[in-house]
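Appendix B, Record 12. Input sequence as logged:
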Amino acid sequence: MLRSGARLTVALVCALMAGAPSARADADGEAVIRFGLVGAWAVDCSAPPAPQNPYQIYATSNGDRPTRELRMQVESLDGIFEMLRARLLGPNRLAYTDSRRGGGQYTFDIIVEIEGGRMRSIQSVRSDGATLIRDGKFSDSGRGTLVFQKCEATSTGR
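Logged structural output:
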């Protein structure tokens, strides 16, 4: 039987462990907010979502992980992704791990950059180690990544 001091210690540890995911989610959300990512972003906010005009909608809520919703009108690519371990890398870069809600084959370590009010992916490394984007260019083609602008609150690509 545990003494009262030991019971208190066990109770505190359990309480802290129960709050840890929520605290981490709040820290992730705070990083996303401070970076200025919350809202809808598109290559062209006046056009609907399409493979050439993806929309990315970033959102936060208390106690839940921040999310990135991708809308391209491509069923296999569209979806909601949780943003894990979000952290600022400086005034214009944010790193996070992208994980498809409901499961996915891979997670992705992402770095995005906002410069001059425009956002783009700088790096994307898949959980199997494959580098998809390096230095703002797609590894397979050498082409630059898409540049997104922040859309008005009413423009979410629906």
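Residues 21 and 63 are 8 Å apart (CA to CA).
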